[in-house]
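Holo prediction. Input below; ligand is phosphoenolpyruvate.
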Amino acid sequence: MRGALGGPRVLLRRLREVMAEQVSAQERLDKIVVLIAANMVAEVCSVYVLRVDGTLELYATEGLNRDAVHLTVMRADEGLVGLVASEANAISLSDAQAHPAFSFRPETGEEIYHSFLGVPILRAGNTLGVLVVQNRAHRTYSEEEVEALQTTAMVLAEMIASGELSALARPGAEPVARHAVQLTGTPLAEGIALGHVVLHEPRVVVTNFIAEDVNKELKRLDDALATVRADLDTMLERRDMADGGEHREVLEAYRMFAQDHGWLRKLREAVSTGLTAEAGVERVHSDVRARMQRMTDPYLRDRLHDLEDLANRLMRVLMGRDHAPSKERLPENAILVARSMGPAALLDYDRKRLRGLVLEEGGLTSHVSIVARALGIATIGEVANATGLVEQGDAIIVDAIMGQVHVRPMPDVENAYAERVRFRARRQAQYHALRDRPCVTKDGEKIDLMLNAGLLIDLPHIAETGAVGIGLFRTELQFMVAATFPRTNEQHSLYRAVLEAAGKKPVTFRTLDIGGDKVLPYMRAVEEENPALGWRAIRLGLDRPGLLRSQIRALLRAAGGRDLKLMFPMVATVDEFDQAKAIVELELTHLRRHSHLLPERVEIGTMLEVPALLYQLDELFERVDFLSVGSNDLMQFLYAADRGNARVSARFNPISTPVLRILRDIADKGRQYKKSVTLCGELASKPIGALALVALGYRSLSLTPSAIGPVKAMLLDLHCGRAAEMLRSLIDQPVGSVAVHERLEAFATAEGLQL
Ligand code: PEP
Ligand code: MG
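Structure of the complex:
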């Protein structure tokens, strides 16, 4: 049987009139259901709205008992309506009562209707409600009718998302759209931030849904598709793409989709129902997003992401504007929300206004988190569907301590957080007041607190924190945030700027630590089964000495006339250290021959990250000028537990007998050889870790900038001798007989130390 009186285009035109009328929200909804029912020749048309409590409430109906409106409430997994909502998929049945999910609500009087067509009301892939038509007769709804109802649902989605329906809701039962949501994720850069959402790659907001002239819209769609295809071809032909790589694969996937007949047909069908070209793309795209959220296969998810990106490109062409936010003109207190982001993109934003960052992807050791930490931007990663759940300008709170994101928070939540921010600011002011105080424990032990750094943006931290120097300068960061290999003169000018900013304070540069998880986008990656154990850091440097030599030359020249401290990453044997040191000597000879200004003094040391070095400590200390313990990698290799995989890395506690015995032995050996030993891993950046290290004899720690205040405050209150006595005797006891971490915490509490 054919329905559709006047077809979908007439319906959309009538809907536009109703949307423009000055009537109450309920009246508007009532008129809409009457219009849809008449247009689709259905006896029933109902709108169910998804509420914050996860249930579906009947908001309007034509044909069912009107008294049931706002009274009929169903669980989101109940009945056919629930099934449409939970699967975000249309369901069309000529005999609804025979379906196993059918559930009967006597108050609605729906038992007499046999056929059922329900479509999800979707916005950005999120279900906001369900739109249903029903017929008494056994009727098969045509594909065009399903399509038409989906198009109509899109108009309803805008109405729900506008917040217009909230006035009809009881407290606690508001529509889920535009309501407060709490999301969880993994803190990547500690901090708390309150502000407003800035979407890194904003969805294009469609404002004009209903076509004046469908043929014109179809032509616009075709033209836009042709432009996108031509753009992709140009990008793929560019010379710098010629040698392949991941980027090329992505573009090729886009090109494949852009020629996919199924996708093109869907777009044209959506526009044919009477939508503008951009609304048609949005319709199809919303379904893609809904599917993406239900997809568990990572490969397929990636392909859908590609398709989504392509749809975004198409939208931009159609809307004729670049919708990316102005990177310099951010609102005050901007919180960026992105699916993923590279470090260079983050650095493009005006950092004075940037407070927080929320990512759908991103791990603790990802480059963007390293940059976010350096910038002091509260950052949370692995927040599922973050970009789909927020709107540009929404109020948002990033709690990158507990790993929570509050979108459109309730006033009491906002007040509580505002108070926590004030509290943290007071603490920060207290730390700031300690800046110029020497770090000496109560019993007179001087502890050198230094900084971990790696970018120009880190340099102001030297003065701000009162650190006594830079204990670890990660030179690879400059390489990681660049789009191409930094030339020797670019390296030279960064090193020079670092030394100038540090003034008389010492800086320890670590030569390139690339490979493993530190990938350079422009360097052809070698496929490795275990990259952390692979061809990385000094191994790469020794096998391809050109890179290492030019870096060492840049460092030696930058430090002309002053002292230079240099160390190598991931050294596993003393022989590797000897070879690396020989390269430095070679470069010194070369520079001397060309009468360059040489450093006054060059000290050469090594990182201790590979456990094999623990059994070569005597030979090592005889050779090095200093040693720096990289507890991040040392822990990873000691326990064979990937530092980037939270499931295994959190399993092993560094404040435990085996690790502390090792750290003690290194410190003791350093003292025996009268060589300086620093610890520059994350362990030193936590007050409890710093307490353990100082108790074991470490007098030099290198920390993340934000940790200097808390660690210093703790050390100023510490009686080092008492801590040493307590901890050294604890770790002499058999493993398992004492809970070292708890005992150390109890000690801190008893001594009044702030951890
Ligand atoms: C370490 O391994 O502890 C370290 C400081 O180096 P990175 O974190 O850069 O690997
Ligand atoms: Mg390391």
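The pocket of magnesium ion (ligand 2) is lined by residues 569, 609, 630, 632-633 (CB under 6 Å). That is the main takeaway for now.
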